[in-house]
Amino acid sequence: MALTDFDKYFMNFPPFDREDDFIPFWEKAASDIKKIPLELSAQKDKKKGGRFYFSSLIFRSFMKTQITGELLIPRDAEHPPVIIIVHDYNRRVEINEELLDSDIAYFFIMLRGHSIVNEPVDDAEKDEIGLGYLIENILDKETYYVKAVYLDVFRSIDALRLITKLDCSKIGIIGKGLGAAAGLFAAVNSQRVSALVLDTPSFCHLSLSQNKSQDDTAKEINDYISKAKTLKKKVKLNLSYFDALNFSDMVTCPVLATVGFKDIMSPPECVFSLFNHLNCEKTLEIYPDEGNTAGGDSQFRKSIMWIKDKIQQ
After folding, report:
1. Among 195, 233, 280, 285, whose CB has the most other CB atoms within 10 angstroms?
2. What is the structure's pLDDT at 124?
3. How many C-beta atoms surround the C-beta of residue 232 within 10 A?
4. What is the pLDDT of residue 296?
């Protein structure tokens, strides 16, 4: 790869487009969510054997919606720390025990509305499926779907704190795509998040990514705007409240990010824009010849071990 190819990605440092009420808006949202009773329930899986106990967790979050996820607690670890795994938009939640370190517990949170995509489909069928959540209440920032997703991940920290078998004094988060943006929000708003992995983050630097990204989030929003062009300015304004770039300089915990130069879903220019604005301890794993799956299973395993090292310090 030529040096000039690297520079076109690395040399991205766009200005923030935060509105004057950006911080008060999110401070109120983070405060209001804590007023909703968690109503946490856990149902143990009857699965036997393996290195982990499985439980399905359910708790109340934004708009009192029930959020679910799978909690894996290692059988041979006492009071383990926990890593929250946040999947990408319109992607199947997958749990591969072989990749997990058995000294750590894991909470695989399911993004709201995603139970309908939790069954595998072939690639041809996948291309035809659109959830439509990214335009749900897009004209109302108070009730927008992405606001709910961000608050759900943030809320999951409080839910996990009620599990007495866990050590939640230091929590790690691994987020993929939109899940990375949600994880970043949670890290900004919770001092318990001690390490954050941004795996090919999306929904960042939206003014650019909406024109370059081919992922489902960009497609849904662009399709909406194409049919309602008079609302484009309003949509752009509201989206600025959810652009992960606008949170980036507020992160204080260590961050490990990944980027693939051939990624058409999380454009590398946008990933670098986010990464460059981070003022914390940060590391970027670069895969010049890979796309959205940059690093694959080996990088996922590496990310877990990186978090383990950080939360044990």
Report:
1. 195
2. 39
3. 12
4. 96
CA dist., res. 110 & res. 68, Å (int): 6
In the chain the first and final C-alpha atoms are separated, in Å, by 37
pLDDT digits 0-9 by tens, 24-53: 999 999 999 999 999 999 998 866 678 999
- Cβ neighbours, 10 Å, residue 189: 20
The tokens for 212 are: 């370059």
Tokens of 85: 């795994």
> What is the set of domains in the chain, with CATH numbers?
37-91+124-193+204-311 (3.40.50.1820)
Q: Which residues of 76-97 are buried (b: 16+ CB within 10 A; e: fewer)?
A: ebeebbbbbbbbbbbbebeeee
* pLDDT of amino acid 117: 82
The confidence score (pLDDT) of residue 52 equals 95
Q: How far apart are CA 255 and CA 9, in angstroms?
A: 19
- Distance in angstroms (rounded) separating the CA atoms of residues 75 and 84: 18
Q: How far apart are CA 248 and CA 107, in angstroms?
A: 24
Q: E strand or H helix at 189, and its extent?
A: helix 178-189
Residues of the chain with pLDDT under 50: 2, 120-127
Phi, psi of 42 (to 5 degrees): -135, 135
Q: Can you state the angle between helices 145-161 and 178-189, rounded to 10 degrees?
A: 60
Q: How far apart are CA 309 and CA 313, in angstroms?
A: 7
* Of 25, 251, 284, residue with least CA distance to 147: 25
pLDDT at position 127: 47
Tens digit of pLDDT for each residue in 56-67?
Answer: 999 999 999 999
d(CA 100, CA 97): 5
Report the number of secondary-structure helices (H) and strands (E) in the chain: 10, 9
Residues pairing with 173 in the sheet: 84, 196
- Under 8 Å between Cβ of 112 and 67: yes
